[in-house]
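User: quick one, fold this
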Amino acid sequence: MASNRAPDFSFNFFATVTVCLMMLGPMVSMAWADEPPGESESIFRLRSHEPNLLGYTWDESGQFMDFTLSVKFKIFERTIRNFSPPSSLNFAFTGRFGQYFERSSAPVIGKRYNPELFYRHDSDDSYWETGYAHESNGQQITTLAAYQQAQATLERPEYANDNISRGWDYVRFTYQSRVLENLGAEHPVLLWATGKWFLENGLFQGKPEEYNDWENDPEGKPRNQVDGITAGIRYMPRTSLSWLPVGNVSLTYTTGYREIFRYNTFRFEAGVKIVDLPLIFWASHGYNNDLARYYRELSAWGVAIEIGAF
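Assistant:
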């Protein structure tokens, strides 16, 4: 059974990239050791990119321990800082994988591998980013024969769906602003929008790996029908209620740019700190919760611990 599971490959890929990133920072920092104090302390330092989460998720595929690790570091930071202090060139990597304890041998399934090179420009109350990214689930089933073989050998036939390969290259633009804080609101409210354009022939992916006719699913559709345009709002209270230490609350909406507004996704998140433990409760309905099943309309929910930014 193990030989038909792509998680082994995807987990190794994830671990290799993460270790390389963690090793690169200290190695490059040593090269700047002769700089005056304060000059090199931020150069090539790993930072959080997307939220780093350890949680538990329930969705169509079952229930699983849900891990997300997301890091970034600035490239040519000192040079860019000299010419344009509010700007930076960044490399980021985000990985997500799940461990299904209810299945035999508790397999680890790769769900998302997302390296990205992007440029960011900051101002006092907003920022914008533009970049080039590859996103895939690190799986290996690309033909009907391989799919049928996995169905025949895995514990349950539907588990083969987790191993269908998906992959895209895309360009991205994001804008975020603290508009309500500037208007004198007591608590800051963030507004943001993101646009993605999925490429027909990307530098890394080539042609997209998305829904295949042999999957024979009436819901099958290209990703640009369910993803590409995202807008969100986040409320960030500075103080908590005495009886409920509420954290950030956010609502995100996503739709595709092909047949816009036909296929919609809503995601709600609420942060609560319990005994100094930062918990996030979330629920979503729509698409893209799992890249292997990106085109299926389904509901998902979960709880996660957010690992602090670094």
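User: anything notable?
Assistant: The radius of gyration is 21 Å.
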